[in-house]
Each structure stands twice: as structure tokens, then as C-alpha cells.
Amino acid sequence: MTNSRAVTAAASSTPSTAKPVSSDSVERLFAEFELLYGSRLADLWRGTDVRGVKENWRSKLAGMSVGEVRRGVAACLARPWPPTLPEFLQLCRPPTDAEAMFAEAQCQVSRRAFGDDHWPCKALYWAAVEFTFADLRALAWPNARARWTRILTAKLAHEHELADVPRPVPALPAPGQALTDVHTARMRLQAIKALLKNNPTNTSNT
Question: DSSP states of 54-80 as a string?
Fold first, then answer.
């Protein structure tokens, strides 16, 4: 079994070019938390400077995409208590095992030729498309690591913008490789015989 490495989906530090988050966005986020958690939200920050708390959230959420924040909010539906800032940041950008997802993509690409693929998320499928199915089949993890991680990270960050995974189109068999079951072959042979019987070939001389 391959030893997998935990690869973070995005850099932990906020880049200098990160898009700032508005105070209104943070207010809307906290309003959504209040609808989810009620008085438990107030209990979490009781005795603290709530204005300072919100400003800290605004600063630390800089650089997060809308999709990442929505992912974090969606993850809160399974949590009975409101998240702290570090917890919410991890919900928005959960650690990603890029090597394990590479292996999963390789598996699903092989199964897709038979129409039997099941992608765990849209981001994985579209990362596979951009990386190319051919490279997924040909490359081993050490040679794919850098490019795959970069592509996967970008797809995960914008998963809400991605189209659904299209239905597979089974590949046509290679020439000479098509197989017909015995019953079908017999039925076709009988049909040919009946056709020849009803339309005998004219062998008379002209």
C-alpha cells in the first residue's frame, strides 16, 4: 500500500494579493450562524469583544473564495456547536490527501471506459479532465505530484462553479474485438437464411 501524504488544499498563510472580505459579508455569515445555533453562538463569545471577534474573522477569511466559505457553512450543518475561527477555516479548506485522490482518479478513469465510474466530487473529475486521462493512465505519483496538486487545489477552491460530472459514453470496441452472444448470433443467422430463401439469387445466364 502506498504511504499517502496529507496535502493542504491551499496555503495556510493569506497571500498579499488576497481579496479582502467586507464587514457586511461577515455580518451575513454571523447571521447565518445565529440561525443555525441560536443562543449557542452568543455563549461561544460571551464576555469577549464581539466587534473585535468579527474583525478578526474578516481579516482571516481574506482570500477565501465564495465556494470555500459556502463549503464551511454547509459543513456546520453536521456540527451541533458553532465553530471557532480555526475550526471554520479548516471546514472551508479541509486538508486534502492529494496522493489518495490521484489514485482515486486513476481508478475512476479506468472504470469510465465501461460506464462504471463514480466520482466522489465534481472537483476530482474536472481535475482529471484538465490533467488529462492519458496522463493519469501513464504517470506515476512522483512524476505527477506537483501538477496534480496544483490542478486539484484550484478545482476544489471553485467546486461550486463547476459543471456536474457528465454521463460516461462507453467506448466502441476496437475493430475485430466486438463480441456477440450465441443467442443473438443464431437469431441473425436465421434472419439471413430467411432473407435468402425469400429472395433467391438469380443465377440464370443473361
Answer: HHHHHHHTTT--HHHHHHHHHHHTT-S
All three cell numbers of 190: 436465421
C-alpha span between 204 and 3 (Å, rounded)? 78
N- to C-terminal Cα separation, the chain = 76
Report how far apart, in Å, the C-alpha atoms of 128 and of each of 122, 146, 152 are: 10, 14, 8
CB atoms within 10 A of CB 99: 20
Summarize pLDDT for 17-66 with one digit per residue, the tens.
Answer: 346 678 889 999 999 999 999 999 999 989 999 999 999 999 999 878 88
**What single DSSP character describes residue 95?**
-
| Strand, coil or helix: 197 | helix
Compute the C-alpha angle 43/45/22, nearest 5°.
Answer: 125
* Count of residues in the chain: 206
Beta bridge partners of 7: 96
φ/ψ region of 111 (left if φ > 0, alpha if ψ in -120 to 50, else beta) reads: alpha
Question: What pLDDT is recorded for position 109?
Answer: 95
pTM score: 0.47
Grid coordinates of 112: 469510465
* Alpha carbon 31 to chain centroid, angstroms: 29
Q: Are the C-beta atoms of 136 and 109 separated by less than 8 Å? A: yes
